[in-house]
Amino acid sequence: METIEDVTFAVELIRAGLRPGVIELHTGISARRIRRWWREVHGTSPTPGPLPTGGSVLRSAARRREATDFIARYRTRGGNLRLDARRILETYRDHQQTWEDPQLTITETWALVRDAEIGALMAVECPYCGGTHYLSMTQRGPSRCPLCRHQTQDTAETMDAAES
Ligand SMILES: [Zn+2]
C-alpha cells in the first residue's frame, strides 16, 4: 500500500509530465491509476508508445547542449549519475527555469540519466574547445560539438581522441 507521500510525489511527477510507466517504476503505484490521475491533471491522455532512447533525445546540437547542462546539474545535486526520480524532478524544474526555450521533456531527461547510469552514453571531449558533451553509444557518423559548433570527426575517432 502506498503512502500519502508516494501519492503526492506521483502527482508532482504527473504535473511535470513524466510518463505513467516511469512513475509506476519509481512509486510502485499502478500505471493504470496514474493514467487516470493524469487525465484529471492534464485533461488529456498521456502519449502512448515506447520510451525515448538516448539517440532520440540527443538528436540535435541544441538538445545535446541542453543534455550536457542537465547532466552536469544532476551530478552536482548528488555527486553521481544514479537514477533517482526525486533528483530528476528537482533538476528538471531548475533546468526549466534556466533555459529560455527548453526542448527536453522530463521523460527525456529521465532517459538520459538512465542511459548514463548504465554506461550507454559516452562523454566526448571536443578537440577544439575542450568542452565535454554526450552522445548515445548508438549514434554514429560525424557530429558537431554543441558547445563551439566545430565539426568533430566521426564518433569512434572522437572517442579515441578523448581517451588518449
Ligand atoms: Zn567544441
From TrEMBL:
GO-annotated biological processes: bacterial-type flagellum organization; positive regulation of DNA-templated transcription; regulation of bacterial-type flagellum assembly
Stored Pfam families: FlhC
Alphabetical UniProt keywords: Activator, Bacterial flagellum biogenesis, Cytoplasm, DNA-binding, Metal-binding, Transcription, Transcription regulation, Zinc
Ranges in a coiled coil: none
Keyword Zinc included in the entry's annotation: yes
Biological source species: Thiohalospira halophila DSM 15071
Identification of the protein by name: Transcriptional activator (FlhC)
One GO MF term attached to the UniProt entry: metal ion binding
SUPFAM superfamilies on file: FlhC-like
